[in-house]
Amino acid sequence: MPSETHRRLTRLSRHFRITGGQGFRLRAFSPDDTRGLQLKDKADALLEESADVMAKLQERLYAQDRWSVLLIFQAMDAAGKDGTIKHVMTGLNPRGCEVHSFKAPSSEELDHDFLWRTSNRLPRRGHIGIFNRSYYEEMLVVRVHPEILGKQQLPAELVTPRIWRERFEDVVSYERYLSRQGVVIRKFFLYVSPEEQRRRFLERIADPAKHWKFSLGDLHEREYFEDYLAAYDDVIRHTASPFAPWYVVPADHKWFTRLVVASAVIEAIESVQPTFPTVDAKMLRQLKAAETALLHEAASVTGAPAPARRPAARTRRRRS
Ligand code: ATP
Ligand code: MG
Fold first, then answer.
1. Residue 230 belongs to domain with CATH number
2. Whole-structure pTM over 0.70, yes or no?
3. Claim to verify: residue 183 and residue 302 sit in the same structural domain
4. What CA–CA distance (Å, rounded) separates 23 from 15?
5. Which of 49, 196, 285, 305 stands the most exposed, by the fewest C-beta atoms within 10 Å?
6. How many folded domains does the chain comprise?
7. Of 116, 118, 137, 228, which is best to mutate to test ligand 1, by the most ligand atoms within 8 angstroms of its C-beta?
8. What tens digit of pLDDT does each residue of 26-53 get?
9. Are residues 27 and 60 in the same domain?
10. Of the candidates 217, 219, 138, which has an alpha carbon nearest to the alpha carbon of residue 174?
């Protein structure tokens, strides 16, 4: 039974949800926001409760086999994408959940349109798909480093100053199409401050067990921090929609990031109210016949009299 605190937390993510770009300004959000909540010590227990709720919802989603959920994570280095994905998803059944990480594209991927590689990884019906980076990199890293465009094998006349606006339009159309196909899309920008990023980089350098997480390339990208923020601002303004909202998730406090994301994921699955498939009268009759056969089988093996059938009320079809 979810606690009262947990019930209130399920509404937490709404404060960070953007369903339309009008009036959006990234600067209106703060990376160290916690909405005044002092829940750091309780966060693990609350996340465990969320995991239970999520697991139950996922089972229905899977059994119903109609909707799928696509969760897109974007962030600057050290904002906590990996940790958030790990913590929030611990309760999910791996049978119906896949995580895909998208790095710099291969030459084969560059030989196709930019949605090709992610389209191949979309979650199937009943599944939850997690993208660790995504096609949004095409409007983020590629915009901050426009020389990358030169490697994309695009016809020269298509590379114009309008290219970013065109990509925004294409992505919105694509997400509208996916939502009409039953894909529930939620997009997360984990918003870390430059100061907190600096602190986390230093921590990675100081701790031998975290050296593998640090790369000099990350330090180089840090020089473009402001450019990335401007690019994120524009991306969110142009691609937030009711069918594929963005969440600007404060990321300076990991415990808070995780609670917000957990809350949004629960809201996303609940939004389609997945239900277990119902059994029709014919199937019910078949189930009863199977039950009788199994009960008789047990009796003939043990020599004992066949046990009484379960009370009829439990298998009786509900009147609609
Ligand atoms: P971590 O550092 O936590 O392991 P990461 O997602 O930062 O995870 P990296 O291998 O460090 O993984 O970086 C992947 C890089 O690939 C990022 O710099 C990202 O900008 C880049 N990338 C992803 N998609 C594209 C793309 N379409 N075009 C160019 N670069 C891309
Ligand atoms: Mg990295």
1. 3.40.50.300
2. yes
3. no
4. 15
5. 305
6. 2
7. 137
8. 999 999 999 999 989 999 999 999 999 9
9. yes
10. 138
